[in-house]
Design brief:
- It is built from nine helices and three strands.
- The chain has helices at residues 18-29, 47-50, 60-65, 69-75, 100-107, 132-135, 140-152, 157-165, 168-171; strands spanning 36-39, 77-79, 128-131.
- A three-stranded antiparallel sheet has the order 1-3-2.
- It starts with 17 loop residues before the first helix and ends in a 7-residue tail after the last helix.
Length: 178
């Protein structure tokens, strides 16, 4: 996740797994985002560390080399995981992490509808590419609100991160089930 400046990304706290870093990057660089961004986990390769990277050697480097920038620009948001398990198989669509209460808490006072969908699902693992124009469809205040929810929530680091894992596609304008 290269930054648009030479400053080091510093998060307000270590909570929410990658969600805190992703949101902090967007907030800190909102007015100068690159045209295409890829948000990835820090491990490069190997099944045990990167089992959720869909390349033959589970390599994030290889995944980025094969990323079709035109597709990202055309669609706005592209999940970098194509394998639907976990996340999109039928038994996961009634998501135990994204409950009606959590949905309302996170999206309260944002541009997302408060109406809780009956199903929320996307391929797991919070690795995706996004266009600047898609990020900018939301006001900065929405991203600040999402990050503040992580900070203030009584959810653990793991659970708050998992919740966002199943919401990135919604945050970036996609249907609740992908």
């Amino acid at each position: 996740m290269p930054t648009t400046s030479n400053k080091t990304l510093t998060t307000p706290m270590n909570k929410g797994h990658e969600a805190m870093a992703y949101l902090t990057y967007i907030i800190d660089n909102y007015s100068s985002l690159p045209s295409t961004m890829a948000f990835l986990h820090p491990h490069n390769s190997g099944f045990l560390a990167a089992w959720h990277t869909d390349t033959p050697l589970h390599s994030n480097s290889d995944a980025l080399k094969s990323l079709n920038i035109d597709t990202v620009q055309q669609n706005g948001y592209v999940n970098l995981r194509c394998n639907l398990n976990p996340g999109c198989i039928e038994e996961h669509l009634r998501n135990k992490f994204v409950t009606a209460d959590v949905w309302r808490e996170i999206f309260q006072d944002t541009t997302t509808s408060q109406d809780y969908p009956l199903q929320v699902g996307a391929a797991c693992c919070a690795q995706f590419a996004i266009s600047r124009s898609r990020v900018l469809e939301r006001p900065l205040s929405d991203y600040e609100r999402f990050r503040q929810w992580i900070i203030e929530s009584d959810k653990t680091d793991r659970i708050s991160g998992r919740i966002f894992e199943y919401l990135w596609h919604v945050i970036f304008g996609m249907r609740p089930v992908q």
